[in-house]
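ugh ok fine here u go
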Amino acid sequence: MGCGSCGCGLERDQPVGCRNNGLCQTGGCNKLNTFNWLSDLPVPDSQQSFDIVEVTFKKGSRKDFYRNSKKLDLLTGDTVVVESATGKDIGQVSLSGELVRLQLSRKKLKENSDNIKQVIRKASDSDLEQLKRSRGKEVATMISARTIARDLNLDMKIGDVEYQGDGRKATFFYTAEDRVDFRELIKKFASEFKVKIEMRQIGARQESARIGGIGDCGRELCCSTWLTDFKSVSTNVARYQNLAINQAKLSGQCGRLKCCLNYELDTYLDAIKDFPEQADVLQTEAGDAKLLKTDIFKRKMIYMYNNGSKHYALDIEQVNSILEMNKKGKKPTELSAFIVEQEDEDIEFAEVVGQISLSSLEKTSRRRKKRKNRRRKR
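structure:
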């Protein structure tokens, strides 16, 4: 990486960064950030600054709100020590100021809630060293935890481990299809790792968000970079967009339908409002024509006769007129009468066949070779 604001050390007088692809939790890089557009605006003297800040923890996948009752001068990117249910935790301020008030209302949290814990102080060098030691044990702990779970024949998958900032507590994130009785597992973990154990079940989408990866589009996964809310995605979303129901292509790395299928859904829903309903069959004197597919943005509906092979692309207005005729008991002669064939414009095409001979091409290639040979001799 090598961003100059990262405080992860120097190597040959060059910043080495955290090698976390811009997702450093100890320097100036952040993930799942909310950009503060109001940071440059002065706060009126009559208005006190908001005393609640948003703090993000490991990989940015966990955020919480803390009260700055000590009136510390906190800015986005500052590392702070905060209260925890079992001691102290260390995180990074991801949002401060009036935008936190909007985030609280978005999360439906009250400003005067007693559940909002306190910011203790800014993190010191010893706190950062303790955090680094705790983070360094997470990979080895996860490997050992998976081995213990496999020995106990538990149908579960441990996807990630997160140590608390002071190292007194470890949270194990796991996925499982059914309910898991992990009482014996917690005893094994407690005796093995000598910390307080918390088991937290997450879904497949949350697991992909914590692990990260590259999507089919060639970019990092949305869930691991900026997406915070996971909305349900159904196969109807693909049908509205005329996508083939192919599970392999529509599924993400989590094994569920891709979240990006929802991005353009509103545009498609607005576009199909003008399409007529119950237009699967059009009655004509030549026979019944069935709807094959719809081209939403070209506003076309494509039909084909039962015993035919030719496709007829009709506008929405034409389909509506045929439906009105069918309601009155009338039938048009055939669908081809509604298709306006565009006359080909008189375009003069130049005859170039035979104008270029192969001998002329060979001559030019020989000249180029001679020039190259002369340059080499020089």
